[in-house]
Write a structure and sequence with these properties.
The protein is mainly α. The protein is built from five helices and four strands; from the N terminus they run ααααββαββ. A two-stranded antiparallel ribbon has the order 1-2. The radius of gyration is 28 Å and the shape is elongated.
Amino acid sequence: TMRWERHGRFGPIRTSLRAKVTLGVLLPLLLILGGITAVQVARHETIVLNSAALVAANAGHVIEESLRHEIIESHFDNVQELLDVITEGGNFRVVYLLDHEGVVLFAPGGIGVGTQLSNDEPDCDPCHRLEEDERPASIVVETEDGERVFRSMVPMENTPDCAGCHEEDEPLAM
């Protein structure tokens, strides 16, 4: 007990060569491994987000082609049904078809149709504050309740097939 009182709480470390060598090896190793782990986690997150962006882009193109076909054929009930089916599985929170002004034309269950979406909303602003050619195709945004959500937007360009109802130079839809 006298030894503990004389050297304090860290006395055994100060007086033991074995403890000093052990700490001298372990502390740098912990710092190095912690740094490597942080870098690997960041790399993994980037890879996962890039993979999600690729999957979202591919899914977006499939959805776009399906919607385009139904719209060109004027099967608007099928457009609504398609959006309902897409969101039923739970893999997509919501899929909107917007006009070039941001008005919801079609939505799952018809909920929100006619609503004017604002580019100033917290989940829209990260992209819409950028110039159009600088906007990412997808982004992770934080919702009002703090949940991180992967967001993807695929513009539908007007094509010659659309000319039956739309002017060729009419702005794109989303």
